[in-house]
Amino acid sequence: MKTLLKNVTLIGSDADSLTVVDGVITALGGACFDADRVFDLGNATLLPGAVDVHAHLREPGYEYKSTILSATESAAKGGITRIMAMPNLKPVPDSTDNLAVEEDLIKKYAKVFVYPFAALTEGEKGERLSDIEALAKRVKAFSDDGVCVNDLKLLEEGMRRVKAVGGIIASHAERKGACDPEEAEYRAVAEELELAAKTGVRYHFCHMSLRKSFRLIAEAKRQGMDITCEVTPHHLTLDLSMIKDANWKMNPPLRKRSDVEASIEALRDGTADMIATDHAPHAKSEKSADYSAAPNGILGFETMFPAVYTALVKTGIIDMKTLSEKTTANPAKRFGLDHGRIAVGERAEFIALDTLGKRVYTEREICGKAVNSPYIGAGMYGFNVFTMIGDKILYKFDEKVKEA
Ligand SMILES: [Zn+2]
Q1: What pTM was computed for the model?
Q2: CA-CA distances (angstroms) from residue 215 to 103, 131, 266?
Q3: If you measure from the C-alpha of residue 55 to the centroid of ligand 1, how many angstroms do you get, rounded to a whole number?
Q4: Are residues 188 and 294 in the same domain?
Q5: Residue tagged active-site, from 144, 259, 278, 354
Q6: Could you confirm whether 278 is annotated as catalytic?
Q7: Count of domains for the chain
Q8: Which structural domain, as residue segments, surrounds residue 167?
Q9: What CATH number should be reported for the domain holding residue 382?
Q10: How far does residue 13's CA lie from ligand 1's centre (Å)?
């Protein structure tokens, strides 16, 4: 199968076409007269498919919110080709048997690559460590995301065992018993940094959102610690003054404008290594409840690129190359995934952002049952219009991409 993509924009190259033969990129630029399929991308910018290291797919256990099939279709639409799936599931992947349940479903239903996190503690209860040594052979990382491991002795022991198997921990840093939601984050960051320094474990902080947290992480990086952190599209683009209803409720919550500015600074200066969505579908009935009763979490896959592109790239705060590094190369490198290049000889795995056209994100277009997005109704640039993995076209926005 030979596929020609024409009228493409490539970062750092003058080539305006790309040829894929049997799933492998064979040419950048140049004509091709014997293609089986030709797509006109309308000058959309090709990027390697994004790697989202923080997502909640909800299956097994919470299929009424989302399934692996619906979530990975949503990811393909949004331009995400690799997902790391958080373990707050039923059963929690805290043993190889429980992990196998999730692995089987992924094999059966996933449209893009999905890598499960293993839970750090049994049932994510923070009481006993999971079967770290056995799980380490089958997962890229450990996390109890959704909750914080508040027993610091247990966390330290977990760090030592994960360090011994060469693994990495992704932390939902939110200390229980703090005075307010700000202290909950930066106190957990400070305490966990101390333990990470003591044990030497590779450590990753999820969804950092405060100036104080970024300061602590920047200082630890200066001291040479092996730590990274992620920032979400919503913490980069929305603040608490904008909250309208429960579709704006997530954890960590939206912060002050000065913290949004600190998050952007952190992304620019490298304190924040990557962007991750914290994609968290909930049923419509759950989110249409009273704000205080509604669960935390918002959708993220379909709006990561337009939200960040519109707020940060279109305005010149970061460039496309940086956007690509923060969404693909950096997370891939940190979590040991071999992916992130568009070059001759590489397997095709790319997306295409329409940076020229502006359109409004609508509830109707969302893949899956959940519609809990604060970006519904927002006019944005930079939507993904085309996703290709190997020979498969996983998503095509027909208004923009024409088959010639
Ligand atoms: Zn979390």
Answers
A1: 0.97
A2: 38, 34, 9
A3: 9
A4: yes
A5: 278
A6: yes
A7: 2
A8: 50-334
A9: 2.30.40.10
A10: 38
